[in-house]
Amino acid sequence: MLTATATAHLTELYSRARPRWGPRRAEVVSTAADIGGLGLGPLASGVLAEYVPSPLFTPYFVFALLLVIGALLLLAVPETVQAPVGPWVYRP
Questions:
Q1: Each residue of 18-70: pLDDT tens digit?
Q2: Distance from C-alpha of 85 to C-alpha of 92, rounded to nearest angstrom
Q3: What are phi and psi of 54, to 5 degrees?
């Protein structure tokens, strides 16, 4: 669920930053980041579980730390979608 959303958001950010260029580069970078993360996550967890003193704690701590850093960095990302204006705005 997250990788599809991240790919769409990266493509929208790239199209706003470089409007005259095509979306091809954004698609390649998004795909490489998604597949790289899916491949490197288990590899890094396995290395941490194998070689650190607390193999049941350290991979989860590193994951939580990276999650907090990612959440903080997400605050700096600009919004790419304009809020709809008018009488037909859906509000749940």
A1: 878 777 888 888 888 888 888 888 898 889 889 998 888 988 898 899 899 98
A2: 16
A3: -115, 80
